[in-house]
Design brief:
- Chain A: InterPro entries: ATPase_csu/dsu_sf, ATPase_V0-cplx_csu/dsu, ATPase_V0-cplx_dsu, V-type_ATPase_csu/dsu, V-type_ATPase_csu/dsu_dom_3.
- The complex is a heterodimer.
- Chain A is mostly helical.
- In chain A, 64% of the residues lie in helices and 0% in strands.
- Chain A has 15 helices and no strands.
- Chain A is globular, with a radius of gyration of 21 Å.
- The N and C termini of chain A lie far apart (61 Å).
- Chain B is α+β, with helices and mostly antiparallel strands.
- Classes of the chains: A mainly alpha, B alpha+beta.
- Chains A and B meet through α3 and α7 of A and α3, α6 and α7 of B.
Chain lengths: 341, 854
């Protein structure tokens, strides 16, 4: 790609960028959140959301309102917007969009396989799948018994296929293996996405690479954190780390050796970016969890992505911000939900 | 007329609504549309307001109604729209209505659900029969193919092994058959191949008729497929894949008899289902028909109810929680109506304590209300599009009614075109009650709303067309031309005299292409044409030169009159807002500046017209040169228009020069002086009024109110001074900017009025071109073909006249007329910083179904 996106970016993608910036303006504001905090029932939430850009998206829902209804409708709305972007996009933006959906597709595949393992019906799990990661072959996932089966039979024609190169094996898919498969898929996905953005160059690379680097490192930390006290060997653990982050290579090697949270913290101390994050984590009683801190940092990066023009990062950032917003609303709403006995 | 000159006086009123009667009172107010509510709960979020529950109930009702309308529309039952709009339902009826609607909804949902189920069932059965019919042909083929397949395995050892293994395990041939969506066939087949590694045989055929999808209701093409496979394992996989691609799988009969049995069974079941479905549909139709009768009134009622609760949400509660307090803007003229409406509302609800109101003094600027009728509405809209007038400001719409069509007509001066436009507008006006016009689409609606503007524009165009003597670019000779050509041939003179006077003889006529009439020869010019331009100019080659000079002067004269009028209207504003100093310090210098330069220009034009005749025209000075000399003081004195011209001009220039500094500095300095003088003065004044108020308070309530008002006014004025004085620099800046804009504007705006000339010229030339290029060509052709040719030529002429000259030219003239009003006229006096008065009125609610369906 030639340098100087500003000369030709708008020819192909100007409309969509304008659109996404308009959509970004419709994100809930501080005032909206203050109002949401004041809500006392789900109905209140619904009424307040009506005054925002969500409009009367819940108008046709029969009573009683539930959190899952709100969640599905919000997802549908995001999905509609995303589909619109995607349908109007040109190369290489459409590839970018495909990359964006891949992470949801991975999640959906794993979700379905877990469901099959627990002998749940496909329909039941299908409802829980993220609409952005939907694809036709998805429902046939439970045919496969081994990862290579999965690849050969089901996923070979989907965009996920290239990410399978590292995880072809004949192991049966039990819970641990599924989790390993997820992480390996994610690793190759992130690396591929990173490479795509890097090759694209220009502002897109400048914006997207730090975001993806952060994403990769976050995964490395979380994998480490989750693997404490499991039977996962340290070598296996190291193979799961995405190698496109700032931690690569020394940090990852150190992380692979870490045995508890303090050691992990020590690794992070070597990096100026992650040190303050780990410092912000509260101790066991209250305070922020590591996950919250990471979310905050992610949101911050996504918001900053809007400060530059002529790049694809805004689409990624918008989707992530909208997702965070949905998480917030669902979190807020679910506090009203009283289990009905 | 008075109400159009200024917006109505408003007052802020407080309504005390007893909580029991508030709903009825608001319903009465909404029907009348008298008042605009102010939101007293601005900092309360929408879900914390008092009547949120009721609003929610309304929304629930709306949801049910929307569902009903949707179902009724789907069943193609006409929805009657009532003529009258029913009043908001009394509270007692609301519950009843809600119950009724909810029952209806439950019933409808159940019936539709049953219907859908039956329908789905039926579709499935139909699909099944289709599948059976199509697969019958497959089997025959399969039988033919199978031997070849069996022969095939020996070539590959692997598959042979598998095959024989399966046979040993007792695996037998299985079939899965069904229907699949056309678009998915290819992917489905590929997936089957990959998963089952070729141990299946897939046969499929396209179904010749498209069927409805039982799930989405879409009508699409389907493929019937038959998969034959060996073994349980693969069978499971095949079934899963079928699920994945949403195939409709039906059991496959193994023998011919079975097939026959199933087919017969299916046929009878389909028959049964048809009858049941018909019955259900009939019943559904009955229910919907009954619902359709009352749906319209319900929709309106619920809308009104919701509007009422929205308004009630704007009211604040009184301390005792017994009554609601609403603050409303109400035109003073309507106060008694408001009282009556409140009484009515209270009476209707049978409350013991009536709701009442009182007016409260306020310092806030009230909204602007200018009452319009169907005639003035269009003109008011033109003004409002620029900006809604400030409260009690002079409303330019009143003058726009005449000046707008007039300025338009100056640019659109053609008798014929104007008449066509007039006829079109007249047609609209005469049929204005026709329902199709009222509900017409965007562009037609635009014309319809501006029908009275169009009417006047057409009329005025007829008038200016008569003045320009233009009818489809041709002149009309009504009274006989004032010029005589024969007088040029006068034979009473000697040839020498003839030569001297420029009279014509045969040789002159024969050898000159262009001949000139000389008005100074007696008998050639017998006096002006009675109305407008002499038709003889239509033949003259110097017609354009003549018309240009005439139209240019006319544009300048009209423009300056228009602008001067604007400045004078400013004086009315200053008088009304009690800012007399503005008259002396702003308006008068502005007027002097304008009149001393451009007023004098007009004077020169008119003077030259009156004083110089055909004989003396050769010595007449050029106005342009005279006007330039006015500023340049040339060394050599020219022979001017009149004696003493130099002195008059110098005096005028001096006045102009003097008015500029007054304009720049007068108002700011005066305000500064006023503030310095008033600051102590003001305190003593307010003290004085306070004393007076104390002393007279006991006398009468009415009296004290008056004093209070007066006091308020003084305080208002004083406060304004204070505010304005606090930033003297800002006042100075505003005034300087305003003055610069005005002084430069006088020149550029005058030039801007020349568009009147330019557009009228363009219009005349365009219609002239159309005539010469089309009709004249058609008329010149020989009689035999001419008749045939003339018809299409006239048709084309009519079409082009309408589209280019009437619509396109009309639009451009319209836009320029708007610009002249907005920029050149209104910036002389019009602030346009008001907000529109939007009354709470049920009439503003839309009463269309289409809106609530969308």
């Amino acid at each position: 790609m030639l340098e100087g996106a500003e000369f030709y970016f708008n020819v192909d993608h100007g409309y969509l960028e304008g659109l996404v910036r308009g959509c970004k303006a419709s994100l809930l504001t501080q005032q909206d959140y203050i109002n949401l905090v004041q809500c006392e029932t789900l109905e209140d939430v619904k009424i307040h959301l009506q005054t925002t850009d969500y409009g009367n998206f819940l108008a046709n829902q029969t009573n009683p309102l539930t959190v899952s209804k709100i969640d599905t409708e919000m997802r549908k709305k995001l999905c509609r917007e995303f589909e619109y972007f995607r349908n109007h996009s040109l190369e290489p933006l459409s590839t970018f969009f495909t990359y964006m959906t891949c992470s949801y597709m991975i999640d959906n595949v794993i979700l379905l396989m877990n469901g099959a393992l627990q002998k749940k019906s496909v329909k039941e799990i299908l409802v829980k799948c993220h609409p952005l990661g939907r694809f036709t072959e998805m429902e046939a996932v439970n045919i496969a018994e081994t990862p290579s089966d999965l690849f050969n039979a089901v996923l070979v024609e989907t965009p996920l296929a290239p990410f399978f190169q590292d995880c072809m094996s004949e192991n049966t898919l039990d819970e641990l293996n599924i989790e390993l498969l997820r992480n390996k898929l994610y690793k190759s996905y992130l690396e591929a996405f990173y490479k795509f953005c890097k090759n694209h160059g220009d502002v897109t690379a400048e914006i997207m690479c730090p975001i993806l680097e952060f994403e990769a490192d976050r995964r490395a930390f979380i994998i480490t954190l989750n693997s404490f006290g499991t039977e996962l060997s340290k070598d296996d653990r190291e193979t799961l780390y995405p190698t496109c982050g700032k931690l690569y290579p020394e940090g990852l090697r150190l992380l692979a050796q870490a045995e508890d949270f303090d050691q992990m913290r020590r690794v992070a101390d070597h990096y100026g970016v992650y040190k303050p994050l780990f410092e912000a984590v509260g101790d066991g009683s209250g305070g922020k969890t590591l996950e919250d801190v990471f979310y905050e940092r992610e949101v911050q990066m996504n918001v900053l992505a809007f400060n530059r023009q002529f790049h694809y990062g805004v689409f990624y950032a918008y989707t992530k911000l909208k997702e965070q917003e949905m998480r917030n609303i669902v979190y807020r709403s679910s506090s009203f939900e009283v289990p009905i006995l | 007329m008075g109400s159009l000159f200024r917006s109505e006086t408003m007052c802020l009123a407080q309504l005390f609504l007893q909580s029991g009667t508030a709903y009825e009172c608001l319903s009465a107010l909404g029907e009348k549309g008298l008042v605009q509510f102010r939101d007293l709960n601005q900092n309360v979020s929408s879900f914390q307001r008092k009547f949120v529950g009721e609003v929610k109930r309304c929304e629930e009702l709306e949801r049910i109604l929307a569902y009903l309308v949707q179902e009724i529309n789907r069943a193609d039952i006409p929805l009657p729209e009532g003529e009258t709009s029913p009043p908001a339902p009394p509270l007692k009826q609301v519950l009843e209505m809600q119950e009724q609607l909810q029952k209806l909804e439950v019933e409808l949902r159940e019936v539709t659900k049953n219907k859908e189920k039956l329908r789905k069932n039926l579709l499935e059965l139909i699909e099944y029969t289709h599948m059976l019919r199509v697969t019958k042909t497959f089997v025959k083929r399969n039988v033919e193919f199978e031997p070849t397949y069996e022969e095939f395995p020996p070539l590959e050892n692997d598959s042979l092994l598998d095959y024989s293994c399966m046979q040993r395990l007792g695996a037998k041939l299985g079939f899965v058959s069904g229907l699949i969506n056309q678009g998915k066939v290819e992917a489905f087949e590929k997936m089957l191949w990959r998963v089952c590694k070729g141990y299946t045989i897939v046969t499929y055929a396209e179904l010749d008729e498209p069927l409805e999808d039982p799930e989405t209701g879409e009508v699409i093409k389907w493929y019937v497929f038959l998969i034959s496979f060996w073994g349980e394992q693969i069978g499971h996989k095949v079934k899963k894949i079928c699920d994945c691609y949403h195939c409709h799988v039906y059991p496959y009969p193994n023998t011919a008899e079975e097939r026959k049995e199933i087919q017969e069974g299916l046929n009878t079941r389909i028959q049964d289902l048809y009858t049941v479905l018909h019955k259900t549909e009939d019943y559904l139709r009955q229910v919907l028909c009954k619902a359709a009768e009352s749906v319209y009134s319900h929709v309106i009622q619920v809308k009104k109810m919701k509007a009422i609760y929205h308004m009630l949400n704007m009211c604040s509660f009184d301390v005792t929680n017994k009554c609601l307090i609403a603050e409303v803007w109400c035109p003073e003229a309507d106060l008694h109506e408001l009282r009556r409406a409140l009484e009515e509302g209270s009476r209707e609800s049978g409350a013991t304590i009536p709701s009442f109101m009182n007016t409260i003094p306020t310092k806030e600027t009230p909204p602007t209300l200018i009452r319009t009728n169907k005639f003035t509405e269009g003109f008011q809209n033109i003004v409002d599009a620029y900006g809604v007038g400030s409260y009690r400001e002079v409303n330019p719409a009143l003058f726009t009614i005449i000046t707008f069509p007039f300025l338009f007509a100056v640019m659109f001066g053609d008798f014929g075109h104007g008449f066509v436009m007039f006829l079109f507008a007249l047609l609209l006006v005469l049929n204005e009650n026709h329902p199709r016009l009222n509900q017409s689409q965007e562009i037609m609606r635009m014309f319809f709303n501006g029908r009275y503007i169009l009417l006047l524009m057409g009329l005025f165009s007829v008038y200016t067309g008569l003045i320009y003597n233009d009818c489809f670019s041709k002149s009309v000779n009504l009274f006989g031309s004032g010029w005589s050509v024969s007088a040029m041939y006068s034979s009473s003179h000697t040839p020498a005299e003839q030569k001297k006077m420029g009279l014509w003889n045969d040789s002159v006529v024969r050898h000159n292409r262009v001949l000139q009439l000389d008005p100074s020869i007696p008998g050639v010019f017998q006096g002006p044409y009675p109305l407008g331009i002499d038709p003889i100019w239509n033949l003259a080659t110097n017609r354009l030169t003549f018309l240009n000079s005439f139209k240019m002067k006319m544009s300048v004269i009209l423009g300056i009159i228009h602008m001067t009028f604007g400045v004078i209207l400013g004086i009315f504003n200053h008088l009304h807002f009690r800012k007399k100093f503005n008259i002396y310090l702003v308006s008068v210098p502005e007027l002097l500046f304008m009149l001393c330069i451009f007023g004098y220009l007009i004077f020169m034009i008119v003077y030259k017209w009156l004083v110089y005749s055909a004989e003396t025209s050769r010595v007449a000075p050029s106005i342009l040169i005279e006007f330039i000399n006015m500023f340049l003081f040339p060394a050599s004195e020219t022979n001017g228009l009149y004696s003493g011209q130099g002195h008059v001009q110098r005096l005028l220039l001096a006045v102009t020069a003097l008015s500029v500094p007054v304009l720049f500095l007068g108002k700011p300095l005066f305000l500064l002086w006023l503030h310095n003088g008033r600051s102590c003065f003001g305190v003593s004044r307010s003290g004085y009024t306070l004393v007076r108020k104390d002393s007279e308070e006991e006398v009468s309530l009415l009296g004290s109110q008056d004093i209070e008002e007066g006091n308020n006014q003084i305080e208002d004025g004083y406060r304004e001074m204070m505010c304005e004085e606090f930033n003297f620099g800002e006042i100075l800046m505003t005034q300087v900017i305003h003055s610069i804009e005005y002084c430069l504007g006088c020149i550029s705006n005058t030039a801007s009025y020349l568009r009147l000339w330019a557009l009228s010229l363009a219009h005349a030339q365009l219609s002239d071109v159309l005539w010469t290029m089309l009709v004249r060509v058609g008329l010149r052709v020989d009689t035999t073909y001419g008749v045939l040719l003339l018809l299409p030529v006239i048709a084309l002429f009519a079409v082009l006249t309408i589209f280019i000259l009437l619509i396109m030219e009309g639009l451009s003239a319209f836009l320029h007329a708007i610009r002249l009003h907005w920029v050149e006229f209104q910036n002389k006096f019009y602030v346009g910083a008001g907000t529109k008065f939007v009354p709470f009125s049920f009439r503003l609610l839309s009463s269309k179904f289409s809106d609530d369906v969308a």
